[in-house]
Structures are given as C-alpha cells and as structure tokens.
Amino acid sequence: MNNIGIVTAMRIEGRCITNRYLPLGEIINIGDNTSICLCGIGEDSARKAAEELQARGANSLISFGVAGAISPKLRAGDLVLPESIYNECPLPVSLAWRNRIQKNLPSHIRVIGGTLATSKKILTSMTEKQEFEKITGACAVDLESGAVAEVAKNSDIPFLAIRAISDPIEFSPPLALLSSINPDGSAKIIKIIALLLKQSITLNTLLRLAKEVRSARTTLSTVVLHAGIELGIK
Fold first, then answer.
1. Residues 131 and 124: beta-carbon distance below 8 Å
2. What average pLDDT is seen over the chain?
3. Of the residues 56, 109, 126, 169, which has the maximum number of CB atoms within 10 A of its CB?
4. pLDDT for 156-199, tens place per residue?
5. Which class is 4-231 in CATH?
6. Domain limits of the chain?
7. Cα–Cα dist 82/117, whole Å
8. What 3-state DSSP class applies to 80?
C-alpha cells in the first residue's frame, strides 16, 4: 500500500491541499493513506518532518509549496515538477510519479522540468539567484526539498517535488521583510507596518509580492484539483 507523506513549510501552501487547521510541526491525516506535516520554513524543519512521516509509515514523500525562479525563463505561477533535486549533490525524483502528475494537469498550466535546488537561505536579490544558478544548474530554488529528498533517498522510497514559482528572478522577497515572517510563513503585521513607516519596504513591493504568491497558490490548488489522486487526497 502506498502511504504518502507530504511536507509543506508555510500555512499558505498547506491551505492549497486542505482547509483543515494544521498545527505547526504536527502530522495530520488528510486521507486514508496520506498525511501532511506543516513543518515551518527551512531545511532542518523539513528534514525532521520527513523523518517523522517516514517513521509513522509513509513509504513515499512529497515536498509541496512555492519556489523562487533562478532561471530568467520562469515566471510567477509556473509549475516546477523537477526531474532531479540538487542539495550539494544530485538527488533523485520518481520520474514515473512525476509524469503521472503532469498528465493529469490542464494544458494552461506551464510545467517546467529540470533541476530544483535547495538553498540554506532565502535568496533576496537577482545577483544571488544568478550566482546560485551557475553553481547548481537549476531552474528554481527552495529551502526544503533537498532535505525531504535526502530522507527519501536514505530510506529508499519514492520522492516527488511539486513547486510553483512565487518570485521571478528579477523580483525577490526584500531582505528587510524576512524578520517579519513567522516560522509558518505568516506575517507579523505590526513589524510590517513598522517597516512601511520606516520606508524599509514599499507598499508596491508588498502588493507585487502578494500578487506573485497568489499566482503560485492558484497553480498549486490546480494541481490538487486535477492530480489529487496522485497525492492520495481524492
């Protein structure tokens, strides 16, 4: 029996899968054979969640959420279904599983293959993204997929990453904004207001960021709607 464990870092990502409240760091059953863990942002949290899901019986793992483009060809809302993961070394993806997901998607979803890389930190400038692309050869970057892929490889179980682009290469979350984000990706409103008042960030930047994230979430929700059977939630 295929028991699927889904790792997602942020609350806005988890809501694309289920309307249930997901306590941070807890494993929640969302189907007969599917569990999800809202792990919080970062590699260490993702690894812990993947290991716990595997220990609880998951025999396949998914990393689900948003990613940043490090290729200029990608735009917000594009879907990255990578064929490999880079986290200091190449890590495998279940290509058969990946291809089944893609076959279930509507034609208007732009699907990108290639490599998804994991970074130790959020990349907050075009220069950082360009340098990371040169090092990794990847088209997109996130913070969690590498850790989940490592757990899957070490356990010899299938792995899949489903990542929608939330920021193109020329637009990144401002460095000043990072201190205003909770571990689950939710905003610390008072701190954001303070940053706006200090002009450390602009309203236009926040509005664009919100728009790009909405595009990514729409794509993720479409994946769940059309290919949810492959995620074990239909």
1. no
2. 94
3. 169
4. 999 999 999 999 999 888 888 888 989 999 989 999 999 999 98
5. alpha beta
6. 4-231
7. 9
8. strand
- What is the Cα–Cα distance from 111 to 104, expressed in whole angstroms? 12
Q: Which residue has the tokens 């609880």?
A: 56
Q: Which residue has the tokens 């809202």?
A: 38
d(CA 56, CA 75): 37
pLDDT score of 234 more than 80:
no
In the beta sheet, which residues pair with residue 152?
A: none
Pick the closest to residue 212 from 162, 182, 171 (CA basis).
Answer: 171
Contacting residues for 131 by C-beta, under 8 A, at least 6 apart: none
Q: Could you read off the pLDDT of 34-81 as tens digits, one per residue?
A: 999 999 999 999 999 999 999 999 999 999 999 999 999 999 999 999
C-alpha 172: how far from its chain's center? 15
